[in-house]
Amino acid sequence: MKPSMGKKTDQKKVNFLFLVGRPAFKSLILLISLAGFIFLFCERFFSTPLNLPTVHFPKVKLPTLSFPQLQSSTKRFLIFFISSLLLATTIYFEIFFKLPNPKQLSEFPSKLTTQILDRNGILLYKIYKDENRTLVSIDNLPQHVIDAFLAAEDKDFYSHNGFSLPGMLRSIYRDIFDNRLEGGSTITQQLIKNTILSSEKTFSRKVKELILAIWAERIYSKDKILEMYLNQVGFGGPAYGIQEASHQYFDIDAADLNVAQAAFLASLTRAPSKYSPFGEHPELASERQKIVLGQMAGLGMITPEQYNQAISEKLDFRSSKIEILAPHFVMLVKNILVNQLGENVVTQGGLKVYTTLDSKLQDQAQRIVTSEIKTLERFHVSNGAALVTNPKTGEVLAMVGSKDYFNLKENGQVNLTTSVRQPGSSIKPLNYALYFEKGHSPASVIEDRPIAVRLASNEVWTPKNYDSRFHGSITLRQALGSSYNIPSVLILLKNGIGNFADFAKKLGITTWDDPTRYGPSLALGSLEVKMVDLATAYSTFANQGITTPLQTIMKIERGDSETLRLSSCPSQINVTPGSSAVNADETSCTPKRNISPTTAYIISDILGDNSARSSAFGLNSVLNIKKAKVAVKTGTSNDLRDNWTIGFSENFLVATWVGNNDNRPMANIASGITGASPIWAKIFNSILEEHQEPQSVSPPDNLIKVPICILTGTLTCSGCPTRIDYFIKGTEPKTACDPADIQKRLNPTPSSSYSSTPQIL
């Protein structure tokens, strides 16, 4: 399914010649004026033969250069006058016409607020809801606060006249060699740019910025300019100005900031979203703060003792709950917007962003996660996460990234739905899907017996089942349903480790990018994945074999009724420069068939088969959802560090996780009983209270049901345990089992049973 493009806005047709003609006309006027000056210069300089000094070289007779002589001084004056007039006119209209007055600095226009809404128009978050600003006098600020901003933004502020020549040269170099207009701005220029000029990246705007910066420095004192800058600069969220930033992050006045806090705030102004301690990567804020402190120390603004104290100080951020719903989801959407549209458009552009989120479902999921994690403290579990999507469309309906976003002491702002964790057995359906694609059926028999696998390091690895038992001849349905480990390893070796990794990446796994980490343990979920990726992969089973990338944004409207086309699938999004439309990379954001409908149905049927998993979980586990046909799989990583449950119906997919952010192991977590499974079941049952899902799903037309012997995978015979299973027409078994052989299998002698010595593979 293609991403939502929104409604196209009516646009007036613009004459092509008008678009091309205006810059061409200005260039023509400039060329004509310059040509006049060049003509006059050449006429005066070359009107008589050149009298070169005598040089002792081989005699070379230089040609006499001459240009047509103007017949009168009047014509020469006329050419000079017209050229000067044209040049002056061009410069005037390009630079000085409607040039704002720096006296407007104290009354610049307010910025427009961007709103992030759920799918029903409910407000989730306002980006810079108000320019929350309280003016503060520079006389009331400690010197180290002023020094922090000077070190971070403009160390030569008190010595230049509004512009920095080294900065301008660096900017010109980047313009030429990096093809981008950036850098070189002093604090005065930043004040001009952020208030009375637009943020367009053009040469003429940079010239205006330079002129106005010099002009402003003749009107205002240095202290006044710095004071205006500190009172208007944005620090993220609704905080504008140093005073409100101090309150938002530390709950103190700007006058009470210490060196470490001042350096942190100074580090924010360059990219508040990127360096926010409340964002997905709070470590970036700490790294940027250390850079500012290093610059302060290098400039002699602080002593080595102050530097060491500030570096070692752990900042205690204020856990103020700003008006925000679904904060992990909102911050993900905000980052997508900033990455594609730029910080200024998002924070000042007055956008209305309609997302895929269902705020009611989000609230239910958050309450369930938070309350269930409290009951798991005795199992050494401190955090949990949940994700709800529509597997057909990829729309994210709920995203709970942790038990409490505002619990900064436990890194609650980290989004566990986008973090990498070991999936454990929840990766097994992908392995089986590849095996089924090669022609095997759920009735195919595999031996669950002791094995040993020789690794690339020449070490021998002996996988074991979770119950430390071996189950002999079992069908693939039983093996996957009961999540036995040894059959999964055998299947991986038959699939080929590299083939399986490539297959998983096709289904949406984005983190398996290092082949040196591949190995047989991949079958048991040893390699990390993201919950959002696993949800994408499972959408393939729910959606008849079509993998559907996740979507978070439905449409974006600008204040002037313009609709921006934007796709929010999280990877490889391309932005067309100079265009208001943002389009997703077709290869990563378009639904694509990766497996056959029969394989998708068989995997879903096995995961929804309560009897197939009964030996592992019992018949009455929380995994057994009775109100609808629901397929589900659990997973627990090695050493009990991650516990998962992920399952789906026709229109809903729910993934849950419990564990610890610091990767500490849990204690006595039992899949299907404790951990992620009760959270998953409660979320799914709450969905089914509001939405009716099918009790059964029809198989593809090419699948037929056949009674088979579960010990041999053949047609049944007397004495053999029998079940009805699916086969693609024409692949069903044609022969029956042997009753005598069945009796030997059911009543093995010590010599006929398998050896406890593992077979080395």
Automatic annotation (TrEMBL):
Residue ranges of every copy of the Penicillin-binding protein transpeptidase domain listed in the record: 384-650
Ranges where the record places region Disordered: 739-761
Compartments it resides in: Cell membrane
Name of the protein in question: Penicillin-binding protein, 1A family
Molecular-function GO term, any one: penicillin binding
Entry keyword set: Carboxypeptidase, Cell membrane, Cell shape, Cell wall biogenesis/degradation, Glycosyltransferase, Hydrolase, Membrane, Multifunctional enzyme, Peptidoglycan synthesis, Protease, Transferase, Transmembrane, Transmembrane helix
Gene3D superfamilies attached to this UniProt entry: Biosynthetic peptidoglycan transglycosylase-like, DD-peptidase/beta-lactamase superfamily
Keyword Protease set for record: yes
Pfam family, one: Transpeptidase
TM helices/strands, residue ranges: 24-42, 77-97
Family classification: In the C-terminal section; belongs to the transpeptidase family.
Catalysed reaction equations from the record: [GlcNAc-(1->4)-Mur2Ac(oyl-L-Ala-gamma-D-Glu-L-Lys-D-Ala-D-Ala)](n)-di-trans,octa-cis-undecaprenyl diphosphate + beta-D-GlcNAc-(1->4)-Mur2Ac(oyl-L-Ala-gamma-D-Glu-L-Lys-D-Ala-D-Ala)-di-trans,octa-cis-undecaprenyl diphosphate = [GlcNAc-(1->4)-Mur2Ac(oyl-L-Ala-gamma-D-Glu-L-Lys-D-Ala-D-Ala)](n+1)-di-trans,octa-cis-undecaprenyl diphosphate + di-trans,octa-cis-undecaprenyl diphosphate + H(+); Preferential cleavage: (Ac)2-L-Lys-D-Ala-|-D-Ala. Also transpeptidation of peptidyl-alanyl moieties that are N-acyl substituents of D-alanine
Composition-biased stretches (Low complexity): 748-761
Tagged with keyword Cell cycle: no
Domain Glycosyl transferase family: 123-296
GO cellular component: outer membrane-bounded periplasmic space; plasma membrane
UniProt record, GO biological process: cell wall organization; peptidoglycan biosynthetic process; proteolysis; regulation of cell shape
